[in-house]
Each structure stands twice: as C-alpha cells, then as structure tokens.
Amino acid sequence: MNRRASQSSPAAKPATGASADAPAVARPAASADVRSAPTSAPTAASSASTPSAAAPSTARAAAPDGDAHILVSGLGVRRAERWLFRDLNLTVPRGAFVAVVGPSGAGKSTLLACLAGALTPGEGEIRLRERSGRLVAPEHCRPRIGCVFQRLLLVENSSVLANVLCGRLGRHRWWQTLFGAPRAEREAAFAIAADLGLAPHTHRWVAELSGGEQQRTAIARALFQEPDLYLADEPISNLDTYLTGRVLGRLRQEAAQQGRTVFCVLHDPTLVDRFADLVVSIDPNDPHGWRVRPVRR
Fold first, then answer.
1. Are 31 and 91 in contact (CB under 8 A)?
2. Helix (H) or strand (E) holding 249
C-alpha cells in the first residue's frame, strides 16, 4: 500500500447495512455565527439563506463555544486580487452535518482546504477541539481529518481493497504492514466497500474502474479511516440517485451516531435540506456576503 495515499484520505466506522436514508437519530444542536456586522453578536434569526425546499419551522438551539468541535474566527482567503470570503465566523458542534453551498468559484473548496490545514488563510484562524478538550490548529490533527476532494488521490495501480485499507495506514508503523493489513482490518474494509456497492470490484485495479466507482472507493477509504472530521468536496458528483442517497446517508449516520462532524459541498437544495444541520453559503460577488443558517424541519 502507498503510504502517501493515506495522508489525503478519509474513512469511517465499518458497517455493513447502512441505508440510503439517514437514521432517525436526534440531531446535534446547531450553532450558527451569522454575519450581520463585524461587531454584532451573530444570531440565527438574522441570517440570510439560500433557497430551501422545505419550509422553515422551529429554530435550533445554539451550542455554547465550550461544546463546539470547529471554531472559525475572522477567516479570510484571497485569490490573486480578489477576496473569496472575509471575516467568516462559524461555530460547529461535534456531530453536525454542514453543507457548503455557492456557485462555482465562490470558494467552497478553498474553505475545505483551510479546514484540512492544507491552505493557510490570509487572515483569521481555525481551531478544532480534540476529544480531550484541547483546541488545536487543523495542521496538527491531520490524521483525524478524512478528506474526499475532487482529486481523489487514489493509487491507480493498486486494488480497490488496498486503497480502502490506506485509510488506516497512519495507525501502524511502517513495518507492521509489510506483509499486508491484519485480517480484521481487511474484513472491515471489505464490509465498507461492499456497503457502497463495490464488492464485485474489491480486487480490481482502480485504473480499471469508472469515475463513479473510483469516487466510491475514495469515500470508502475515508469511512475506513474513522476520522473526527470529514471534508467531502462534491462526493456525489458521479453517482446516480440511489448511490447519492446511500453515500450521504452513511455520512449522516457517521455524524448522528458516531459524533463525527461532516463538511460537505453540495449543489442540490433538496439534498441539503434532507441531510444537513447547518448550511454555509458563500457569495462570489461579496467576500462579506457569506451566510450561515440552520436547517429547519
């Protein structure tokens, strides 16, 4: 297995029978720092939002900062002569599913890169709260961040199963995997791949797969990693309706049942309203025009 492949890969708790729909589990309290003015206290009631398919009902309670998993303060990123976003403030509780929305080029992927510690913002800071309670910068907890970016970073001349197993390479010393992964891990990796419809392909080389199959391989690798934070950039772009529901249902299940926070770039408002707890909307025409809103059901 290629150790480099695991550094950008995610994974999660093995499960064999996840359904396409998210399980009926109580959702975490969602906290939204919504920009109105730089010096004003943000409130969910004052937030602008992107159109949603479902009519709002009741607002969610805000989580105190002490219970937050992700703390973003005054974040700004500049590309060439243009600021993508500025003064972005966000407080996310552990186990929330956050949808990131906006037109192409607005800065959605850039925001995820900052959360992954792969890009240094021009201003502001991001802190992740470890389960011990300590606040750290993203670059100091990369092994606990699972990424599915548009560049899937798979090892094409290796099998699907070997790529999924890369999700836990960071847990082992180099010599412990010289003769392959432990049997229990191979079985767990196969179960996750099978749950995403990859059982017939586990021993095929990644280079032989379709785009959708490769995308599901990267998602299975992320799930096998069992990170504290998932960052998924359009993870369903090559999937049909059934597999879209299955993948997002698994991520929703990871958030609701395992307390693993999810940031996911989505374009379909129906999927946003179905799976997300919070929505971060980025305005390509105004770097201060970002908005955060809770999803109401």
1. yes
2. helix 241-258
